[in-house]
């Protein structure tokens, strides 16, 4: 069958995907502890109450890069680097609450599961395009197909980030924390992460530009207050 190589490649990539998820879970299990920071515990309680649930449970991932993470199994993590920024007074508890709310948005919308499905579809598209384009543009067909698939993946990832931002905005407002911490953290983010601006074209970035994210949050807040 002429599609057998494509099917085998997709199965191989899917196996690698599941292996990477297993490795991530093992790493998180070995390098994380429950989040019990005294300045963040009230934030976890407020977020839980806003959802009519017990306090949100989160963990500290013992790595230095500043980041938040929603694991495929639904657990929420802040990195030790983020906690150090809190202790140094560079971020506030409310700002870190907005990170946790954002990661809860990823969990609530099932983004990890959706990425797994998208991953298989994107690789099928990549292989089909590479086969077709390779006949007309030898040597460049596979590269162009890869670029198109990467652009599609980046667009889907940006959509997920906007969706998680919207969830976080609604949750922060319902918790009485407002959108100011969410916006102020975005304005600090490049400095906190040591970023020097986007090195890739906007259409290949996995996260939307910060000004667009802030504008979307402000627009949503306006609609939410009116409604």
| Helical residues, percent | 55-70%
How many alpha or pi helices? 8
Shape: globular
Average per-residue pLDDT, rounded, comes to 82
Query: How far is the first residue's CA from the last residue's CA?
Result: 56 Å
Summing up helix and strand content along with how strands pair, one would put the structural category as mainly alpha
Q: Please provide the count of β strands.
A: 4
Number of domains: 1
Point out poorly predicted stretches: 196-200
Widest β-sheet, arrangement of strands: 1-2-4-3
Compute the CA-based radius of gyration.
20 Å
Measured by DSSP, the beta-strand proportion falls in 5-15%
Instruction: Give the SSE string.
Output: HEHEEEHHHHHH
Q: Main β-sheet: number of strands, strand sense, barrel status?
A: 4 strands, mixed
GO cellular component, one term: membrane
Keywords: Hydrolase, Membrane, Metal-binding, Metalloprotease, Protease, Transmembrane, Transmembrane helix, Zinc
Transmembrane segments: 6-24, 136-155
GO molecular function: metal ion binding; metalloendopeptidase activity
């Amino acid at each position: 069958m002429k599609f057998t190589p494509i099917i085998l490649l997709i199965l191989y990539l899917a196996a690698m995907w599941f292996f990477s998820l297993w490795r991530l879970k093992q790493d998180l299990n070995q390098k994380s502890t429950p989040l019990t920071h005294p300045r963040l515990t009230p934030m976890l309680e407020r977020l839980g109450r806003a959802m009519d649930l017990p306090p949100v449970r989160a963990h500290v991932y013992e790595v230095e890069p500043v980041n938040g993470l929603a694991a495929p199994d639904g657990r929420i993590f802040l990195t030790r680097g983020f906690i150090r920024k809190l202790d140094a007074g560079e971020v506030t508890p409310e700002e870190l609450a907005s990170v946790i709310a954002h990661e809860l948005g990823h969990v609530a919308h099932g983004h990890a599961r959706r990425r797994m499905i998208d991953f298989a579809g994107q690789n099928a598209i990549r292989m089909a395009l590479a086969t077709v384009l390779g006949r007309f543009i030898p040597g460049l067909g596979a590269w162009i197909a890869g670029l198109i698939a990467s652009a599609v993946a980046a667009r889907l990832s940006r959509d997920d980030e906007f969706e998680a931002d919207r969830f976080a905005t609604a949750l922060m407002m319902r918790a009485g924390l407002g959108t100011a911490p969410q916006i102020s953290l975005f304005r600090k983010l490049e400095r906190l992460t040591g970023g020097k601006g986007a090195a890739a074209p906007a259409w290949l970035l996995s996260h939307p530009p910060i000004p667009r994210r802030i504008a979307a949050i402000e627009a949503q807040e306006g609609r939410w207050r009116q409604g």
